[in-house]
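Most newcomers find our protein records easier to grasp once they have seen one. A learned vocabulary of local backbone shapes supplies the integers on the structure line. An example says more than a description, so a record of this kind follows:
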Amino acid sequence: MAYEISYEDFKSLVDTKNIQLFDVRAPEEIYKYGKIAESVNIPVNEIRIAFEIDNNEFKNKYGISKPNKDCDRLIFHCHFGKRRRMTLDTAFELGYTKARHYREGFSGWDARQQSVNKC
């Protein structure tokens, strides 16, 4: 599906750091299981508020620039899949029409033995 990104394309974006990757898991999950390099944590219940604030506030809060609404490198992921789909629906509602999700989530990434940063 057009809103999903394959492992190969996802890995390429992560490897080249040409990605705006948001991990929508709870901070406790990231601490326990680790995270994908380059990801920024915004829990699923905060996504709407985060993507509605202005650019300066977003950068101050999350340490990166807020994605443009037409960014095709805007990717969401969670652990297994339910939350990233809810997040993607919210992003679409807010006008981020090219946003995608990594279907395999953190568990799929971790299973493929990729670069995982343990906290």
Summary: The helical segments are 7-16, 27-33, 47-52, 55-62, 82-93, 105-111. Residues 82-93 form the longest helix (12 residues). The chain has a mean pLDDT of 90.
